[in-house]
Design goal:
It contains one helix and five strands, in the order ββαβββ. By secondary structure, the chain is mainly β. It has one domain: Roll (Ubiquitin-like (UB roll)). A five-stranded mixed β-sheet has the order 2-1-5-3-4, with no helix packed on it. β3 and β4 form a beta hairpin. The protein starts with a strand and ends in a 5-residue tail after the last strand.
């Protein structure tokens, strides 16, 4: 199945050299893929905290993906 992955800001620096410049990319993933599978594929260090949206809804890593889902991966921000 295909999903669209958008990754923002400094998170792109963790990607392989061939993918560092992409902001939006369509990926082929297994039918039973989860958000956690997408994060593993990105190989982000464990210390990096992210917020993940699927179809503009905040989700956790166990969320199952469906054909055509649009995934946004953003660095967590702190403020006050």
């Amino acid at each position: 199945m295909q999903v669209t992955v958008n990754i923002y800001s400094f998170l792109r620096y963790y990607l392989p050299a061939s993918e560092k410049l992409f902001q939006e990319k369509t990926w082929e993933v297994p039918a039973q893929a989860t958000v956690g599978d997408i994060l593993e594929r990105l190989r982000l260090p464990g210390a990096v905290r992210v917020t993940v949206l699927v179809n503009n809804n905040s989700v956790d890593q166990k969320t199952a993906l469906k054909e055509g889902d649009i995934i946004h991966i953003l660095p967590q921000m702190a403020g006050g």
